[in-house]
Amino acid sequence: MAFTHLHVHTEYSLLDGASRVNELAAAAKRKGFDSLAITDHGVMYGVIDFYRACQKEGIKPVIGCEVYVAPRSRFDKNSGYERYYHMILLCENQTGYQNLIKLVSLGFTEGFYSKPRVDDSLLERYHEGLICLSACLAGEIPQKLLNNDYAGAKQKAEYYRDLFGRENFFIELQNHNIPEEIRIIPSLAQIAREIGVGLAATNDSHYTEKEDSKTHSILLCIQTGSTVEDENKMEFQTDEFYLKTEDEMRALFGEYEGAIENTHKIAERCNVSFTFGERKLPRFDVPNGENHLDFFRRGCYEGLKKRYGEKPGKALTDRLEYEISVISKMGFVDYYLIVNDFVQYAKSRKIPVGPGRGSGAGSLCAYCIGITDIDPIKYNLIFERFLNPERVSMPDFDIDFCKERRGEVIDYVVRKYGSDRVAQIISFGTMAARGAIRDVGRALAIPYATVDVVAKLIPAELNITIDKALKLKKELRDKYENDSQIRSLIDVAKQLEGMPRHATMHAAGVVITDRPVSDYVPLAKNDDSVVTQFTMTALEELGLLKMDFLGLRNLTVIDYAEKLIMADYPDYNPEKIPKDDPRVFKMISSGDTEGVFQFESQGMKNVLMRLKPDCIEDLIAVLSLYRPGPVDSIPTYIDCRHNPSHIRYKHPLLKNILNVT
Length: 661
Prior knowledge:
The chain is α/β, with parallel strands linked by helices. It contains 27 helices and 13 strands.
């Protein structure tokens, strides 16, 4: 194999690329390629997924991006400078990767104007380790040729040759059977000869197979809000924008010396790797330069005495020492200190903070220093569910804050660690089953009433897919089999289902780093907020510290209620409310739980009325069971709760462990 695709768009060129990352890598392998590039428009959203997918298929990933270049300055932001050019940048090495993420980040944070734009001054600063291709028809050099400015095109090519280096700048040739491309190919080849740089043949791949062209056209209609019937809709001129075979590329460019072979040589030079699982925790500044572990241990013991009295028993101190030992050995002392710091900040500003939930509530250390307010000893909570020496992934405290004041806590963290070391985390809205049906229906100009009927036949279930809906719903299946229009609608929707539709911001996730975040990952902007271009999962894989600052409306409501109570009862103290008040459990058992966190859905009310809970453990069990998977065990649990004789243990040794639930 002597050819590599170096100009490739995935599903992360949102509503423009129709190639799913996993399918793209598999197709490259199937077609005999041993390497493949990713060059999404102005972003690096899919880099980690692409890297993983290529590794799985045994092919070499080439990391890159098709950046937008402002004609003059990235700071020109008025209607006179809306134009931008395209440019392909590929990472030759880790330095190149660092420079590319800087460029892509600054394109958003400094140069965004309809698109994230870099400029020549940024390229001059961050070109090391990058290989540049002159891009498609939208590149500056092709544009000058189309405008009959050969001298200007050659001059720009010489500028980039001198900037990137003769061995790192290539004139890109494309032929999708578009007259403009065919017209300028000889001029591009001539410029390459005259300035002494190589050629690189590419295909501007936006979908994987030729037959995917129709799906891609519909995707563009979804992006632009048009339909396939619109005369002026945005569309590609031909159906040639797919992942072509080497033979197909040779048939187009075989006469141009080096154009095919250079692509593979470039891929061989590009060696970027990611290290997964290596933790990169920020350092917490301890007062007076005290040893971090000593400071942490002292805080834990002070809290232990505060929680359990001046003379806590040996079992408690043994448990505390065990946890401190594990936390220290695994390198998470600073993690505890960081979380505790912003929790204590919130409490000091009277910002309502939740008592703790998730596996973090099983940590005695967390309870002692004040991260959580749930006694793990009283409720027999297991520390190892949160942290143990065999755990590979990062631990994760889920901290709830008053929804209205959550931002104050994030602002504090930004002030403490620096705005360049804190960023919120990107998330992607995807085309779910119903949404895909509606989007495709609009793009195909199918009457709304028809599309609405089909969409409503998709069950409103978690993780439902169109294929699953077809198996579950006979009416939907009948329409699919007997109506060609609906069959076409569903077939296209299935091809687009699950693809990212738009970028948004994770509701709670924040990443904190020891160096500027853009040293590790590319950044983007979501409205006025700086966000990572990698998702929460990718950040965790890369070993970065991700925190969940959850905004909980119920905490705000409770805070308001307590203030109203204290207006009439100044001595009111929520800590003195008994946990076993029979009137409260009677109210819960009657389903009177409107506004009670996680107990207010009708399904949950029905379970509570059947169970008749009379202790806090019953409530814990219901919350644990009422979720996909264990929900099917609720009838069994209720039966055993009311009829203890029906309880059966797999082994007698399990009784003491499982008898509470």
